[in-house]
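Journal club prep, notes for RB
We'll compare a predicted complex against what the paper describes. Inputs for the magnesium ion case:
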Amino acid sequence: MGRIIAIASQKGGVGKTTTAVNLAAAWAERQRRVLLIDLDPQANATASLGLSLDGLSTTYDVLLGTASLREAAVPVGVAGGRANAAGSGADGAAHFDLVPSSMDLAGATIELVELTDRDRRLADRLAAVHTAYDYALIDCPPALGLLTINALAAADTLLVPIQCEYLALEGLTEVLRTLQSVHERLNPELRAVHLVLTMYDLRTNLSRQVSAEVQRHFPRELLQTVIPRTVRLGEAPSYGQSVLAYDPTGRAAAAYRALGAELEEAFTDAAT
Ligand SMILES: Nc1ncnc2c1ncn2[C@@H]1O[C@H](COP(=O)(O)OP(=O)(O)OP(=O)(O)O)[C@@H](O)[C@H]1O
Ligand SMILES: [Mg+2]
C-alpha cells in the first residue's frame, strides 16, 4: 500500500465525502490504483458514485469479518457506476475500487464493542490488501467514535476538510487530540495531518478570513489547494458521478486534481 488517508472531522457537512470521492477520482484519473472505503452509515460516498447495493458486501461485513476487503471492493470508474470486472472502466481509470456502505454500519459499533480488537478491525483487514493499491481513502462519519477510530488506526495520513464558514476552526482541537491519542495508543504510523479549505468563495470576506486564520494557526498543515464553492459539486452526486466525469473542465475538477498532485508531492517529500 502506498498511503492510507482518513478523511475525518466530527463536524457535519464540511466536505468530507465530496473530498473523498473526488480526490479518489482524481488519483484514478492519474492511473493510480485507488481504494475508496465508505465508512459512514449514511453511505453518501456509495450513493455519490451511483452504486446500488443489491447483493454487494459492505464495510459492515468487512468490519464484522464476514467479507474480506477484496471481496467487498467493487470496481467503479471515474465516471461512477459499476465498471467492468477487470477493474478498468471505459474511462481508462487504472483501478478505482469502492467498498460500499449501508445503514447496517450504524449498528456495527454496538456489535464491535465486545471485541478486544475493535479499534483495529479495519487496519487488520487493510493490511491484507496492502500491495494492491497506491492509495486507500476512508470516508468517515461526522463523529469521533469507533468508526473514525478504526479509520485513524489504519491510516498514515489524516485529511481534515475545513469549510470556509463562521467558526470553521471550532472542533479542530478535538480532531487533533483524537489523532494524538490514536498515534500514541494504536498506530504510531499515523503521522501526517493535512487541512484543506472547502467551499471557498472568492467573493466573500469570510472565506478570506477563514483562510487567513487557518494559515496563522496551522501554517504547516494547511494545503495550498483550495476547493471552491461550486454548484457542480452538489450536482455531480445526483448523476452518480465524480465531478471529474460530470464537469471535467470545471473549477472543481481542476481543484481536486491539484489537491491530488499536492498531496502526492507532500508524500514524496516526506519519504525523502
Ligand atoms: N466545494 C463545494 N461547493 C459546493 N457544495 C459543496 C462543496 N463541497 C461539498 N458541497 C456540498 O455540501 C454538502 C456537504 O458535503 P459533504 O457531504 O461532502 O460533507 P460531509 O462532511 O461528508 O458531510 P457528513 O458530515 O454528513 O458526512 C453536500 O450537499 C455537498 O454536495
Ligand atoms: Mg460525508
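Talking point for the session: Confidence is low (pLDDT under 50) at residues 85-90.
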